[in-house]
Target: Flavin-containing monooxygenase 1
Amino acid sequence: AGMRVAVVGAGVSGLTATKCCLDEGLKPTCFEQSRDIGGLWRYTEHIEAGRPSLYPSVISNTSKEMSAFSDFPYPEDFPVFLPNARLLDYLRHYAERFGLRDHIKLGTTVVSVRKRPDFATTGQWDVVTEVDGKQTSHIFDAVMVCSGNFSEPSLPLHCFPGIERFQGQYFHSRQYKHPDVFQGKRVLVVGMGNSGVDIAVEASRVAMKVTVCTGRGAWVLSRVFDHGYPWDMVFNTRLMSLIRNSLPGPLSRALINYRVNQWFKHENYGLQPEKRYFLPVLNDDLPSYILTGRITIKPGVKEFKDKSVLFHNCSEEEPIDIVVFCTGYNVSFPFLEEAVVKVENKHASLYKYVFPTHLQRPTLAILGLIKPLGAIMPVTEMQARWVTRVFKGRRANMSSPRYQNTVQTGHIFSLPCTKTDFNCLVYMDNLASFIGAKPSMLGLLCRDPWLALTIFFGPCTPYQYRLGGPGRWEGARQAILTQWDRTLKPTRTRVPTGSSSPCPSVLTVMGFLLLLAAVVFGF
Model:
């Protein structure tokens, strides 16, 4: 009859989870609390409780070739980095193309997901949903949690002494929609994530003065990278990953340090990160805005006064009218009981960042908790491909005793997982090898050398995980060989397009030697 799977949420993760269920012959029902699909990427002017909130100017940080689901490339005329409305279009096309709509129940909130009394033998779940205040109970064989991690803002006011006597206005970045609130004001942005920097840049176009304060600094990358190629297509290649992994830690960090300081020297701009590594911030304007005095960078807040703020290691007060707290989000699963996922001070124990480690049966998975250096779509899709095969109990490296042993060791990590020494490519290869979809470099080098070289030296686009194994897609090879054409098409609008991809000569030679070494040592 096919296993019944409940999918919670119809955003990026929920849509691909639903599709992977269908691919594996399972029966998914996807519950989405809002009135449409798209999750984070569906912009609404008003802010809805329990739903992510975008500001209208949000543009994807990752390029379209790197952000595609692996069997569904973006249309060639879409811009390389996508405004939120285009990304939503893509998600809608995806749902259309794979017939996902029939399996999605909109306006349906998941109230609770609990183990059934006979869970130890059946692995089944009781799922209670609510529509217009009316509750219904269902039984499911498995559950995929795809509710995202940008719904519950984290605003630790106790970390900001004196905030209660500050007379100006303050709010969390989740509340931000348009820069006109900053007109003529002196603005303080607390925190330096992607939202913080975006908001500071937008504010500085209308505000009297903008200050960004950050305790730890940040690496800043531009979407426009070497020779104008998209940053992730240059940065995220198998060659780069191999170099980063083969070099000793300090050397690898020195290399990254050198790369990110090529655009501008971070310490001259007050941005040098405290810790050696964490995720870079993507913004194309920040350094020039600092250079033109529109934005000033300061250390963390020491305390607030009535109409001003004091920073650490700074003696004078800075007058401020309005504060935006860009302090991120808490991950929460209000519908899950504590026993299923133990989140203790932002840490959880999940096998491969997906399966809660202490469940007797692996019939509940949490998708998309990772924040990779790169796009989330291919990662969460790979998780879904693996998870659906685990549910099905096929070739999924989860046979009970072994699963139990591996799982007891678990992976305790902070939520969402943002370790930058976390190598996304290695993780993707790891999951792909569980389902038999990892591209074999040696086999390809013999059979299809041009494809092998493109995969190794070129950007690590998701299509390579559809070349073989379950879910193999006929169009994968073609998609890989034409990825640069789709990247250049939307910008080469005045001169005819020829095919060109960046092929650095010295790197090629070095890389080829590395490739040989890799093949010999079984990469």
Remarks:
- The radius of gyration is 24 Å.
